Amino acid sequence: MRAGSLSSDLQIEAGQTFELGGGQDGGFAVTGRNTGSVAVLVLRKAEGAAAVAKGVIAPGDAVDARFGPGEMALLRNTSSTQMARLKLAITGDTASLGMTYSDNR
Questions:
Q1: Residue 53 contacts residue 43 (beta carbons within 8 Å)
Q2: Model pLDDT, residue 2
Q3: Residue 39 to residues 7, 46, 77, 84: CA-CA distances in angstroms?
Q4: In sequence order, what E strands does the chain have?
Q5: Listing from the earlier edge strand, what are the strands of the sheet with 28-34?
Q6: Residues 43 and 82: beta-carbon distance below 8 Å
Q7: Handedness of CA 21, 23, 26, 27 (dihedral sign)
């Protein structure tokens, strides 16, 4: 495991989910603030399991979510019409974190 940090001004299109991690050896944390005007749902997904909601980040609210080894963080834009915006810091085992977007399911 290699510890590190990443910073992001993340934008998530309407009807999309940002997927971070999955399969990494160590855990990681996502901290920051919702800088947009729509709520973002935070989910945790372990390999082979269904996603579990961790909470909702309302506009202007902060997030401090931790994810274990192999887990994936899902940040889901709750709006079907507006872009979500977050300012985030990701710390921990960031060396092998995959990042992609998917349609909300």
A1: yes
A2: 59
A3: 20, 23, 7, 7
A4: 3-12, 16-21, 28-34, 40-45, 52-57, 62-67, 72-77, 84-93, 99-103
A5: 3-12, 84-93, 28-34, 62-67
A6: no
A7: positive
pLDDT tens-digit readout, 91-105: 999 988 999 999 997
Pairing state of beta strands 72-77 and 16-21?
Answer: antiparallel
Q: Whole-prediction pTM value?
A: 0.94
Kindly report, residue by residue over 5-59, the tens digit of the pLDDT.
889 999 999 999 999 999 999 999 999 999 999 999 999 999 999 999 999 999 9
- How many Å apart are CA 86 and CA 35, to the nearest integer? 5
Side chain identity at residue 45, one-letter code: K
The b-or-e profile of 90-102 (16+ CB within 10 A means b, else e) is: bbbbbeebeeeee
